Amino acid sequence: MNNKKLFLIDTYTILYQGYYAYINNPLCTSKGLNTSPIFNFTYLLINTLNEEKPFYMAAIFDSSKKTIRKKEYHKYKAHRKKTPKDISIAIPYVINILKSFSISFFYAKYGYEADDLIGTIAKKAEKKGYIIYIITLDKDFFQLVTKNIKILRPPFKGNPKKILGIEEIKEKFGVKNPKQVIDLWSMMGDNSDNIPGLPGIGEKNARKFIQKYGTLENFLNSTHDLSGKIKKNIEENKELGFLSKRLVTIVTNIPLFYFHDEKFYIKKPNWNSIEKIFLELEFRILLKKAYQYFLFRMK
């Protein structure tokens, strides 16, 4: 068994998934606490611990501070609604659950986002011989996929858990390597993050241009191949393409962040803490699953 597997949880996407999955019929305690986001996160966490039996793991959180991308482009994620109150309330519970399982957690700092911190950790861990699984529903992480960095997509909208590697990304987007999804989104834009892209270039054209030119830069240096309105649009908006690429690209070298194995090692869980918080949240079925993991780690 290869113990050098590192699991990185993109925390907020999992919390949002739980929040919206039960939006019309929230899971609540007898005291009225909406536990939908907490339950979804905890269910995923315990299933991962029981099924994968990892020895290295961390949960990553976004900061509420203004990001470097937002400073560069004020419209970046501008259409996003404020974090729902029930998710904000869930965070301290999630932190306590992670502590009770002795799992590390980190906040993105200095204007970087959780994506950047995950990207930096993944790349540094890869250099140390780890196989990394990024647990997320966010497609932005596809650009990070390598032989040793994979995406673990939890069950979603009736679809089973999936592990996405190089071949899956290539097939899904028609690219030669996963890094090219950066160029793809730089051309076509991304409504979910308010990435402008190049005007008049939809997904169909972006795929065609990526297959022909390989990168955004090569494409923008080859506008002599184009004609008519599309040529005019591209030549007048090259800077939008470059801006989009900067916004889309996940930072994988955050300064002064060092990967220390012991910070990610999962120590033995604290059963008393697990039992206390699970009973408060009325997670009785999950408590049984948690006990299975506790017994495994106490062997």
Q: What's the architecture of the largest domain in CATH terms?
A: 3-Layer(aba) Sandwich
CATH topology of the largest domain: Rossmann fold
* Biggest sheet strand line-up: 3-2-1-4-5-6
In DSSP terms (H or I, runs of 4 or more residues), the helix count works out at 14
List the secondary-structure elements in sequence, H or E: EHHEHHEHEEEHHHHHHHHH
Distance between the termini: 17 Å
CATH class of the largest domain: Alpha Beta
- What is the overall pLDDT average? 93
Q: Overall 3D geometry?
A: elongated
Question: Number of DSSP strands?
Answer: 6
Q: CATH homologous superfamily name of the largest domain?
A: 5'-nuclease
Please state the CA-atom Rg, rounded to the nearest Å. Answer: 21 Å
The parts where pLDDT drops under 50 for at least 5 residues are: none
- How many structural domains in the coordinates? 2
The profile of the biggest β sheet is:
6 strands, mixed
Give the helix proportion (percent range). Answer: 40-55%
Query: β content, as a range?
Result: 5-15%
